[in-house]
Amino acid sequence: MPSFEEIKEAARRAGQRANMYAQTATAQFHSGFSLPSECNRAAKVLQSFLVDPERPDTVMSSIPKRVLLRAKGLAIFTVAKAGMGWSGKAGSGVVTARLPDGSWSAPSCIATGGVGFGWQIGADLTEFVIVMNTEEAVRSFGLSGNMTFGGNMSAAAGPVGRGSSAMMSVGHMAPMYSYSRSKGLYVGISLEGTVLMERKDANREFYGQPIPAMDLLLGKVPAPEAASAMYEVIEAAEDFDETAFLRAVYPNSSHRSQSMQEPEPDIYDQDQEDLHQDHDGDGKAAVGSNPSN
Q1: CA distances from 21 to 92, 116, 202 (A)
Q2: What pLDDT, on a 0 to 100 scale, did the predictor assign at position 44?
Q3: Taking a C-beta distance cutoff of 8 angstroms, is the pair 45, 106 a contact?
Q4: DSSP E strand boundaries for 149-249
Q5: Biased composition, Basic and acidic residues: where in the chain (predicted)?
Q6: Beta carbons within 8 Å of 65's beta carbon, 6+ residues apart
Q7: CA–CA separation, 92 vs 80, rounded Å?
Q8: Strand-pair partners of 86
């Protein structure tokens, strides 16, 4: 029978192997994803969280239009988790911010990774959409390079479908809303303690020079054509006529009453002007030639 010291040493070696696996898996996971491919994947991920006009039932389980119209920023990423007895995870995606004119900024690549213990067997893929409701939340993604969920920058489970206006009122909004799906189903995965890191390598490779994430989120770099699919999904969701859709699907139902009574929020607000005035928002940063285009 092994001694206690032998068991401890075996556990230590297992932990080292787990950490090496997580670091290697994270590097491999990230190395195969360029900013254009991340933007295309983000477009598909975001679309899966929104109303599908071909499936009327999705109106009750999608991110409400009002949430998107009030959003100051979006982070969209996918996390792969695998292991047996212990688990390694790696994820990547993009973050973009709303500009004062209502358009969306050039994207910045983000990543996450780590290792944990528990009886995780097999593999799982989870998609996340983080809606930033405040300018402070946008700054947290842009200023430090790394952003940790928790404390004042916590992410609450976001409202879905109709009947969620109370959660969306200014007095009740969390700094961020979190939406997650695994195997096509909504899941309530906590992000507490999760660290999202700026992928400076991917940003530098695409934009042709080192550009701080905050400069991208402030609109100092023109929005690239490579992110057009993502912008189109966001703009289509913001322009979607929810009232007409509900009227057509539920002609005699109360499902549409709230949507018809409440005005849509104004997406052009003073807070965004203040964010840009605080950060030397003069002109566009020069960008080197982009080999990806």
Answers
A1: 17, 11, 22
A2: 96
A3: no
A4: 155-157, 176-182, 185-186, 195-198
A5: 273-283
A6: 51, 237, 238, 240, 242, 264
A7: 9
A8: 117
Which amino acid is residue 55, in one-letter code?
Answer: R
Contact 141, 238 (CB under 8 A): no
What is the rounded CA–CA span in Å between residue 206 and residue 7? Answer: 48
Maximum C-alpha span of the chain: 73
Mean pLDDT calculated for residue range 39-54: 93
Q: Residue 64 in contact with residue 133, Cβ under 8 Å?
A: no
Both structure tokens of 258 = 């709230």
Predicted local distance difference test score (pLDDT) of residue 78:
93
Whole-number pLDDT of residue 25 = 44
Tokens of 176: 């961020």
Number of residues that make up the chain: 293
Pairing of strands 176-182, 155-157: parallel
Q: What is the CA radius of gyration of the chain?
A: 21
Alpha-carbon distance 173 to 166, whole Å?
9
Cβ atoms < 10 Å from Cβ of 142: 24
Tally Cβ neighbours within 10 Å of residue 145: 15
**pLDDT 10s digits, 219-255:** 999 999 999 999 999 999 999 887 777 777 777 665 4
